[in-house]
Design brief:
The complex is a heterodimer of chains A (112) and B (110).
Chain A: E1 4-7, E2 10-13, E3 19-25, E4 31-38, E5 42-49, E6 56-57, E7 65-67, E8 73-78, E9 87-94, E10 102-103, E11 107-111
Parallel strand pairs in A: 2-11
Antiparallel strand pairs in A: 1-3, 3-8, 4-5, 4-9, 5-6, 7-8, 9-10, 9-11
Chain B: E1 4-7, E2 10-14, E3 19-25, E4 32-38, E5 45-50, E6 54-58, E7 61-66, E8 71-76, E9 85-92, E10 99-100, E11 104-109
Parallel strand pairs in B: 2-11
Antiparallel strand pairs in B: 1-3, 3-8, 4-5, 4-9, 6-7, 7-8, 9-10, 9-11
Chain lengths: 112, 110
Amino acid sequence: EAAVTQSPRNKVAVTGGKVTLSCNQTNNHNNMYWYRQDTGHGLRLIHYSYGAGSTEKGDIPDGYKASRPSQENFSLILELATPSQTSVYFCASGGQHQNTLYFGAGTRLSVL
Amino acid sequence: QQKVQQSPESLSVPEGGMASLNCTSSDRNFQYFWWYRQHSGEGPKALMSIFSDGDKKEGRFTAHLNKASLHVSLHIRDSQPSDSALYFCAASDYAQGLTFGLGTRVSVFP
């Protein structure tokens, strides 16, 4: 089965600090995604990528940047973290758009 | 406005019983549908996909899609305690990642 690994699993950050969440997939999938999960909002798409060097804005990109330096790695960057970005973040990978997405175990981020 | 709407928000079902979950999309661009399941502390995991009108059965799980009404349902037969989880309906318009509903929490009681 597809393997997607996220790090760290838990992170506490200070308001105004920089946070980088990392994701690695070992399945040679072209597409990778970052979602956040909040009660009452479900899973919302932040950024996605079609391959190395590409990043695209999802539905809620404000306050976030993404980086895809290689096929395997996809990072989510919060340059100036705010308490409203406290959430659980999930990375996912998948093939073509009609293919299943495989999710990592998530990163729980608290911004104080 | 939520493009993928799920009902009910929560559902309790006896062990061995049938659970029925519903999902409706308001965007006619969505052509592909999935059901995902998420256990506490884990990431969502795909249960099944359905792309054509009609029923699709995988073990104890049956999905039904009506493209004309953009309605998809999931039925869990012979529910087990391990089926207690948060269930998401998700849809794709072939443009970007999946759009998820808010989820239905299923609790299976003995």
